[in-house]
Amino acid sequence: MTATNLPASSGNGAGPAVSVSSDIPHLDVDPFSIEFFADPYPTHELLRETGPVVYLDKWNVYAVARHAEVHAVLNDPGTFCSSRGVGLSDFAKEKPWRPQSIILEADPPAHTRTRAVLNQVLSASVMRPLRERFAAAADAKVDELLARKSFDAIADLAEAFPMSVFPDAMGLKQEGRENLLPYAGLVFNAFGPPNQLRQDAIDRSAPHQSYVAAQCQRENLAPEGFGGCIHARADSGDITEAEAPLLVRSLLSAGIDTTVNGIGAAVYCLARFPAQLARLRQDPTLSRNAFEEAIRFESPVQTFFRTTTRDVEISGHRIGEGEKVLMFLGAANRDPRRWENADHYDINRKTSGHVGYGSGIHMCVGQLVARLEGEVMMAALARKVRTIEITGPVKRRYNNTLRGLESLPVTMVPA
Question: DSSP letter at 336?
């Protein structure tokens, strides 16, 4: 991995060459390679320490990895737009692989209207009556697993728990729910470059896309679920009939995988940092923060792109209009400029300001659901589990955008 300050002329593979500002250092790294995914932290440090903005020659994009710059880009949607795609593809130059999202891949004022609908459907007042049901399901899941003692904390806990509560909250039918996780994996792989991960996901995606398209339709959703409530907003004129299924699709795209990886990360952290588990057992009111710190520490969503709408300066470096900017959320969440002992999992840390859910107008719309699921599961573990021991090889699941585990064999001892 090398850094230079040479000027370059390049493009992101989807249009004419662009001139790269000569004062921006270049890095020869591939943040979408399996080697990077296996251990991103040395490269994260290199990205942060090389400069506030770097240019990645492999994919011809600018990148920011320090917390201050990532936060600034996320909070300036007028300059760094989402409507040209939040992945490497530039929708001004190439066709999206699916109809574009009217929430994630939209800018104000269009985004403001659709976001308002989802904010109402997923409001804090909606979450309150769900808490008891989610908490009871978390308790039952932990009791079941403690009876088994040894199990896979990803398949049997991190995946099984969200899959037992979220599809019901959405109002989905029972049949076909096994398509939800592969579909979400596809969506997040598609934000990456045209590498093998992306191509494989798209090649096998037909049944998953077909299932999700059908579940977004009103007749397949229980009226009292999140999906039915979105369609009801079409009746009141807040959105159109055509927009309702696309908003349901947004929740099905991002409502499960991110939470699965977040809960998996939290269990992985508690297993590796037994003193933190002991602290959580002593004070179960730290359950919410234990989950939040795992989101900062492991960053289930690692990266997102924006596209510049004008010539702009980032920390004194000029970037032209129409350029892709890659934000390293995971690197920002461990930036020592922002966090003391950033590479340590600490459930007493003040985590406010982390960008694990993004920031600004595009902050994760399902964050309240994810936080509720994560908190009640951490609370169940705090009350019921004395120790978590990793008892087999830990396998990572590779994805162009998400960081998570494929397998985490553990033995849990009851409290």
Answer: T
**How far is the CA of 262 from the CAs of 35, 57, 291, 382, in angstroms?**
22, 31, 7, 17
| Confidence at residue 90, expressed as pLDDT on a 0 to 100 scale | 97
**Distance of alpha carbon 235 from alpha carbon 98, whole angstroms:** 26
Q: What is the CATH number of domain 3-414?
A: 1.10.630.10
Detail the DSSP E strand segments found in 136-261. 150-152
Torsion of CA 251, 309, 54, 356, to 10 degrees: -20
Beta strands 8-10; 18-20: pairing state: antiparallel
d(CA 225, CA 234) in angstroms, rounded, equals: 15
Q: What is the mean pLDDT of residues 165-173?
A: 97
Contact 282, 181 (CB under 8 A): no
Report the C-alpha gap between 121 and 225 in whole angstroms: 9
The closest of 55, 314, 37, 45 to 192, measured between CA atoms, is 37
Q: At what angle do helices 110-121 and 243-254 cross, to 10 degrees?
A: 60
Quote the CA–CA distance of 141 and 151 in Å, as a whole number: 12
Q: What is the pLDDT of residue 3?
A: 41
At 7 the pLDDT is 31
pLDDT above 70: residue 13? no
CB 4 within 8 A of CB 24: no
pLDDT tens for each residue of 57-70: 999 999 999 999 99
Query: What is the rounded CA–CA span in Å between residue 168 and residue 162?
Result: 10
Contacts for 352 with CB less than 8 Å, ≥ 6 apart: none
End-to-end CA gap in the chain: 47
Taking 80 as the threshold, does the pLDDT of residue 9 lie above it?
no
What does each C-alpha distance from 313 to 24, 79, 317, 318, 321 come to in angstroms?
11, 10, 5, 4, 11
Beta bridge partners of 55: 26, 62
- The pLDDT tens digits for 292-351 are 999 999 999 999 999 999 999 999 999 999 999 999 999 999 999 999 999 999 999 999
Q: What is this structure's pTM?
A: 0.94
Q: Which residues is 305 bridged to in the sheet?
A: 326
| Domain coordinates in residue numbering, the chain | 3-414
